[in-house]
Design a protein that fits this description.
Layout lengths: L9 E2 H8 L3 H9 L7 E2 L5 E3 L1 H15 L4 H8 L5 H32 L3 H11 L3 H16 L6 H8 L11 H15 L1 H14 L5 H4 L2 H22 L7 H22 L5 H12 L5 H29 L3 H4 L6 H10 L2
Antiparallel strand pairs: 1-3, 2-3
Length: 339
């Protein structure tokens, strides 16, 4: 096939072979004002230049993707360079890909859950939710599970920031995780379990202080240190190393400061010594160990599936959202190594 050049005009038969369109289709698009011929021969035969051929190829692709003539006219109504035409073509293809990913996520969920007709409609609505609608769904969840609890208003705002953020082009896995998360937060049994957990956790006269912005900041700082120590242990850092000893001391200090915030009393030297002994010899304090393990298990039983889905949607490592910190044995050995 001869090379197409910018200054050459081609008869409709050549254009049909180059574009894959039938001659009748090319005539139809001309008659409908979609792509008109560039020129005509003296005998009235239609001729097309390279730009018109490119537009016809785009029309063919758009039609293959299901675009109607009105949509195609909207793309072609202004003069465009070939680069602009390619960009318009890419926008359509990417839009189709996003739609197909959403459909794939719905179909996977239908197959896995054996969904009924009512659920299918709900799943379709979920994957096509706007960012604002997703925010409202999570806001409603946090409002219900914390409503009426004796906690600081700032803590409720802190919880509301724990939400999924779908990227502009989510993967099928992220869409499926969002469907599962939306189903989870809408489930009455899950809401009741979360509400029960918070009622038990904050069944204290000082619940407002324990959920104050200062306490939240202290807790987030402690979580960051715990995550850092967890990563160090996972990377094989020995408890006797300077890095481990420094992390253990930071954990000790952070634990003491959190305890002071919770009790409303400063730590004296004796209490710091007791805390060091508790963390250095956890096996000597089984009651405390069982309490901590029990609280962690209760929290994990309620929230771990939630955070696992959230991590997938937000494309972050699960340990950044859900992490129990380094092992007691690693921290204890590091503290003992530091003397």
């Amino acid at each position: 096939m001869a090379t197409v050049t910018d200054d050459q005009l081609y008869p409709i038969g050549d254009v049909a072979r180059r574009t894959g369109l039938s001659v009748s289709a090319i005539r139809f698009y001309a008659d409908e004002g979609v792509i008109e011929p560039t020129a005509h021969t003296d005998a009235g035969y239609r001729l097309y230049d390279v730009a018109a051929i490119a537009r016809l190829e785009l029309v063919r692709t758009l039609r293959d993707l299901g675009a109607g003539l009105d949509d195609i006219r909207g793309v072609l109504k202004d003069e465009m360079s070939l680069r602009e035409l390619a960009s318009a073509h890419l926008d359509v293809v990417e839009g189709q890909m996003r739609t197909l990913k959403a459909r794939r996520a719905v179909l996977h969920t239908i197959v896995n859950q054996n969904s009924d007709a009512r659920q299918v409609s709900l799943l379709h609505d979920l994957v096509n939710m706007s960012d604002d609608a997703r925010d409202r769904l999570l806001d409603d969840f946090w409002t219900e599970v914390t409503g009426g609890l004796p906690i600081h208003p700032g803590y409720q705002e802190h919880l509301r920031r724990t939400r999924p953020v779908l990227p502009e082009e989510p993967t099928a896995e992220q869409l499926q995780a969002w469907i599962a998360l939306a189903d989870m937060v809408g489930d009455a049994e899950f809401r009741a379990s979360v509400r029960h957990f918070y009622r038990q956790a904050f069944a204290t006269p000082r619940s407002d202080e324990l959920t104050s912005p200062q306490m939240v900041a202290r807790s987030e700082e402690h979580s960051a240190i715990s995550l850092e120590a967890w990563k160090a242990e996972r990377a094989g850092t020995t408890p006797e190393s300077p890095e481990a000893r420094e992390l253990a001391e930071r954990l000790l200090r952070s634990t003491g400061l959190m305890s002071a915030e919770m009790t409303g009393q400063s730590m004296d030297e004796e209490q710091w010594a007791d805390l060091r002994g508790l963390l250095s010899e956890p096996e000597a304090n089984p009651e405390v160990t069982r309490f901590v393990e029990g609280f962690t298990a209760d929290f994990g039983g309620v929230f771990e599936p939630f955070f696992a889905l959230l991590a997938t949607i937000n494309d972050v490592p699960l340990e950044e959202l859900w992490n129990t910190g380094p092992s007691d044995a690693w921290v204890a050995a590091a503290l003992r190594a530091g003397g």
